[in-house]
Structure formats: structure tokens, C-alpha cells
Design a protein that fits this description.
Blueprint lengths: L3 E4 L17 H11 L5 E3 L5 E3 L1 H9 L4 E6 L5 H13 L8 H9 L7 H4 L6 H12 L4 H4 L11 H11 L3 E3 L10 E3 L3 H9 L3 E2 L4 E2 L1
Parallel strand pairs: 2-4
Antiparallel strand pairs: 1-4, 2-3, 5-6, 7-8
Helix pairs in contact: 1-2
């Protein structure tokens, strides 16, 4: 597969593009600005865009004069029409594993990921549910010694616990507790019940 550098003036957006991309242009532009133009635009033999309308608009916004392209000259006209739709549709079927996404985001310290993940993919119902849960926490939960800190020496154990308890990022606080910052919260009862049903050696801290 060959990649060609093409002038933006040589590319033509597909007139009947059924995908509305306007809301995604800024995010893609931020991505290109941060990481470079890593995903070529796919065009047909006449320079009409098959896949990459958002990247095209983002490149224009950033002042690019040319962009990397792949020419899909091995596809029939019907295949190009189909690919244009399938390329967008297949991405809709993927979902985020939120606990693992949280872990990945927490380990990225030098890049402002909120430009792309400001809501972590949560819908309104989930956001309201989380807000309700946070509001029910009393301030004393952050002021007294009624919490437990567990340090893991490997990522796999940490991921197992994240998945076991369905832990989520918490970035909230009220009044003087606004400095609480980012943490992970699980109710003591849920933790106790999970551990109680395991045959742990409390003195050794290991499973028998």
C-alpha cells in the first residue's frame, strides 16, 4: 500500500457524504496538532474523499497545504460507496471498558486528555447517577480515618480489582474538600463482602 502526499486543493469532499462531521473537527485538529497526521485520507482515482472528511477539514483548519493520502484505485465504484459507509459505521459498534479507560487516562500525566475525554463517554443518566452518589457522601468520609489505601506491585492485580468492583474515576469535592482531586471509591460494605467470601490468610495477606 503506497501513501502519497497530496495538496489539499487536489482533494474533493464527497458531495453526498451522509456523515455530519462538524462537531468532530476540533477534536481531530487537536489530535493532529498533538500527535501529527498519522492517519492518511483515503481518496478515489479522481481525488474524491472516500474516508477522512473530518481529517480533511481539520487539516484545512490547521493550515496544512498537503496531507498523506491512499488512493483506493483497486475498488469498484460500488465498493467505494460501500466502504465510505462501512468505515464510519463499524466504529459505532465499539464500546469503552470504562475501568480500563480510567486506568489508561490516569497514567497519562503530560498530555491534556480532557480535550477528547471530558465526560469519559458517559451519557446523561450515568452522569446524574454519579452526581447523586457523590452528593450522598458526607464530608467526614474525607476527614476521618475511615478509608483504606491498597498499593499494588503489578498492573494485573490492580486491573483485577478495578474490574471486580467496577471502580470509576472520581473527581469531585464540596466546599473545602474541592482539593480531594482524583481517586477511586468503593463502599466499605462491598469491599468487606468481597473479601469475606475469599479464604484469605489475614496475617500473611495472601490467599490460602
Amino acid at each position: 500500500m503506497k501513501i502519497f502526499e497530496k495538496k489539499l486543493s487536489e482533494l474533493k469532499p464527497y458531495a453526498n457524504n451522509p456523515r455530519k462531521n462538524k462537531g468532530a473537527v476540533q477534536g481531530v485538529a487537536d489530535s493532529i496538532k498533538e500527535f501529527g497526521f498519522k492517519n492518511p485520507i483515503v481518496i478515489d482515482k479522481d481525488g474524491v474523499i472516500v474516508a477522512g472528511h473530518t481529517r480533511y477539514e481539520a487539516a484545512k483548519q490547521l493550515g496544512y497545504k498537503s496531507v498523506p493520502c491512499i488512493i483506493a484505485d483497486d475498488l469498484t465504484d460500488e465498493q467505494i460507496k460501500a466502504f465510505r459507509l462501512v468505515d464510519n459505521k463499524t466504529a459505532e459498534k465499539a464500546e469503552w471498558d470504562l475501568p480500563k479507560l480510567d486506568l489508561e487516562l490516569m497514567e497519562i500525566q503530560g498530555i491534556d486528555m480532557e480535550k477528547w475525554f471530558d465526560e469519559l463517554g458517559e451519557d446523561e443518566e450515568k452522569k446524574k447517577e454519579k452526581e447523586s452518589m457523590l452528593e450522598s457522601m458526607e464530608l467526614k468520609a474525607f476527614e476521618h480515618y475511615d478509608y483504606l489505601v491498597i498499593v499494588f506491585d503489578n498492573q494485573m492485580d490492580w486491573l483485577n480489582v478495578v474490574n471486580m468492583f467496577g471502580l470509576h474515576k472520581v473527581n469531585a469535592g464540596y466546599g473545602a474538600t474541592k482539593k480531594v482531586g482524583v481517586g477511586r471509591v468503593v463502599t466499605g460494605k462491598r469491599f468487606f463482602e468481597a473479601v469475606r467470601h475469599k479464604d484469605f490468610d489475614v496475617k500473611q495477606g495472601t490467599k490460602r
